[in-house]
Each structure stands twice: as structure tokens, then as C-alpha cells.
Amino acid sequence: MKVFNDKQVWFVTGSQHLYGPKVLEQVARDSAEIVAGLNAAETISVPVAEKGTVKTPDEILAVCQAANNDPSCVGLILWMHTFSPAKMWIAGLTQLNKPFLHLHTQFNAALPWDDIDMDFMNLNQSAHGCREFGFIGTRMNIDRKVVVGHWQNPEVHKQVDDWCRAAIGINAGQNLKVARFGDNMRQVAVTEGNKVSAQIQFGYEVHAYGLGELAEAVNETSDADVNALLDEYASTYDMSPNLFTDSDLKKLMVQEARLELGMENFLNSVGAKAYTNTFENLTGTTNLPGLASQRLMSKGFGYGGEGDWKTSAMVHIMKVMGQGKQGGTSFMEDYTYNFGARDQVLGAHMLEVCPSIAAKKPKLEIHLHTIGCRADIPRLIFSGQEGPAVNVSVIDLGSRFRMLVNVVDTVTPPQSLPHLPVAHALWEPQPNLQVGAAAWIHAGGAHHSAYSQAVSLDTLTDYAEIAGIEMVVIDNSTQLRQFKQELKNNSAYYRLAGF
């Protein structure tokens, strides 16, 4: 299913004039059929655009420059149908600033044993041509994904889509603005970072806005829009009727609806798709947004608590990468542990957990918030859907960024948690809490994360490679001694590489 219809991945075939016009005509027909097959694949989420066969250095350079200049192009799939001498690719790949996937396939699946001759061999020599092309990518030190297999194979489609979604995430980051309302929480280290370095590395911009600007947008929200949103709350969530019949409670609901509308209008007006706030600075606003932040996340906005702009950006990027997939993505925090037969983590936040991860229809309730500000705040309460998930933390190490990923298994809480007034998810870290938490701490992972059941580990791996950042994974194969050595090896590599 094509989810990202406003974007494209370009399919470019490599060959040369050596084989004559009839062979090149067949190459073009085969390429067109492969593109049609990829577009028909249900699992590939980005449309694939057939961009012809390149046969000379000038043609290769031209298609690379055209891809650079087309905002709808998020990357290229490059395939060598025949032998394409790799020196022809140097100028184009030198200038190409979009990611590419090297598809190592061939048009036919089985060999025609009774009919095969040298004409067939000369036409169908991807095994030959792709190795030549692979050399130049390695010689030029270009990070890229290589997918091997027949183009009709569902596993190939899955790998292609993992990479396509990563390219979409890179594109989302390059076009992202993060709005900061208030500063990072005082004395907290991991939520800080170098915004200039982040813009260079990921492409997104981080801007600060005064709370007065936001308050003005909130106060300008019309009563009619507020009433319409209240009706939407009533039809979407489980809630007590007294939230609207009790005058004091309804006042709180009106305040929250006004916050949601005002924040969304302000973010849209400045072109921001992610934001942060802090409960230490709410000047001019009625309270810390709870339901408002949850619903904005469900609409695709990234969020980071206490000024955590790196996590806010990653939440939005992962929401984009996970579009059309089952499961949701949310801002999350490792809050408290359950030590027992199987050690577990209860993840939550003060208010802001996205309902896209909910197992059941959320309940809308009002409870007293006591951290930083003391106020009754509407919020959605639910438990996270059980199943596999990932927790992702992007941290600034000063000389480089590291993306830390822990694969986790979310489970249903054994009891109902009747007195916990916040949304939450209960998970078991892989390989277990003892190793997983120790590895996370050794790697410098934050207490905040982007939690997702929609984005695969393979997509995150491709994203990190395209972005050019270090990635370390904690999963069932993690052993702490080897993990600590991996961190040391990575540090030496990036230092030698100039990071």
C-alpha cells in the first residue's frame, strides 16, 4: 500500500552502450516491469518512479543532479542490469546528496537451462555488474543499503520498504522545525545538546518562542471551535458526563480544549511539527497541557517533556516513518520497575503519553497534577498495547550523536492500576532488565525515549546509517561485556573518523 503518495523513490538502471540498441531496449523493458512489480507490492509504502537506463557518465551525473533538485525524491534505488563500468558513476555519486539503495537482483529468477547462451549471459549479468558498482561505493566510502534477492520476493519488498521508510524519516527531519516553549529543565543534562550540530546532522531546526506568543494564540481561539472540540472529546473517549455538567469541571475542559486548539494553530503558523514545554515555565497559560499534548501527538506532532527537543524531533520522525503500520509511537519515560519473576519497566510520564499506543479506548479524566505546578488537568488514561516495541534515545556526546535502541516486549499489566492517573505501558526489556538497563546506562541513554510499535529495528538501522550517526542496539543477543567493548570500539572509530 502506497502511504507516502507525495514522495517518490527513483529507480535508475545502469548499463552501457557496449551491448547495442536491442539489448538496451530489452533492459528498458525489464526495468519498467520491475518498477511496476515494486509498485504493485503491498508492503512497499513509497511510489517508485522509473527513471530510465543510464549509459554514460553524463547521464549518470544528470540523473543524480535531478534527484538532488526534486523535493519529492527521497532517495534512489540503483540496479545494474548489465555491466556498468563504475568509473562512470564517480561524478554522479560525488554530487548525489540523496540516499540510495543498491538492489542486487536480476530480471529472471530461474535460469533457462535448455536455452541459455552468451546472448542471455550478456543481457543478464547483474551478478557481474553489481559487484563492479559495489566496489565504487566502497571505494568512495559511501554508506548505503544493499538488498539481495529476486525483485518479486516478499522479503526483498520488506527490506526495500524498511529503507524507504528510513529515507522518508530523513526527509521528514530535513523539513522539520521544533518549537521550544520554555527552556530545558534546570540542571538536567541529557535533555541538553548542541542545536547547531543537530541541524547539521539531521537537518531539523530548533526555535524558541515566548510563552506570551503561545498564550496569545490560545486566547484567540473561538468559543465555537472550543465547543466543537468538546463534542469531539465526548464522541471519542470514555468519559463521565459530569465533566460537562459540573461547571467547575467543564471550565477545566474548556481550558484544555482552548490549549489544544491554540497550540495547534500556533505550531501550524510557524511551520513546526514538534515541540517541547516545561512545567517550570507556564507564564500566561492556564496549566500544563495534558490531553492537549496527547492529542497533538496523535495527530503526528512530536513532543518532548522538560525541553527535550532531541526526543521531540525523534518522536515526530518516527511517527512519519511508521505511517500506515500497525501500532503507534509516543514520547515515553522509564518511570519505575517491577522486580519479580520477570523484571519489568512501567513506562509513563506525568501526562503526555500518546493514545496511538493504547490497547483499548482511552478514558478521559481529570486529576490533580502535583509536580512543578499544582492544578487539576484533563488527561487520557490507558495501558499500552501488548506486543514487540522499541525504545529509542538520541543523545549528544559532544563530538557526535548516538542513537540507542532497546528492543522490548510490552505486556498487559497483571492488575488494573486503579489509582494511577496517567497513561502507561508495561514492558520487559530484552534480553532482560538486568542486562538491558545496565547497557542503556553504559551507553548514556536518556530517561526519555521515543517508544514505538510501528517502526522496525531494520528501519531504524537504515535511518542511522543514512543520517551518519552511531547506533547501538540492546536486544536478546546483547551480552554486557561485549556491549561495553562495542562502545569502546565505536568511540575509537568515530574519533579516528574525525567525529
UniProtKB/TrEMBL annotation:
Q: What is its EC number?
A: 5.3.1.4
The cofactor named in the record is: Mn(2+)
Domain L-arabinose isomerase N-terminal residues, every copy:
8-172
As its record notes, the protein acts as a catalyst of: beta-L-arabinopyranose = L-ribulose
The UniProt note on the cofactor reads as follows: Binds 1 Mn(2+) ion per subunit.
Check the record and name the InterPro entries matching this protein.
Ara_Isoase_C, AraA_central, AraA_N, AraA_N_sf, Fuc/Ara_isomerase_C, Fucose_isomerase_N/cen_sf, Lara_isomerase
- Give the metabolic or biological pathway: Carbohydrate degradation; L-arabinose degradation via L-ribulose; D-xylulose 5-phosphate from L-arabinose (bacterial route): step 1/3
L-arabinose isomerase C-terminal domain boundaries:
328-470
Q: Which residues of this UniProt protein bind Mn(2+)?
A: 306, 333, 349, 448
Q: Which family does it belong to?
A: Belongs to the arabinose isomerase family.
Q: What is this protein called?
A: L-arabinose isomerase
Organism of derivation:
Vibrio xiamenensis
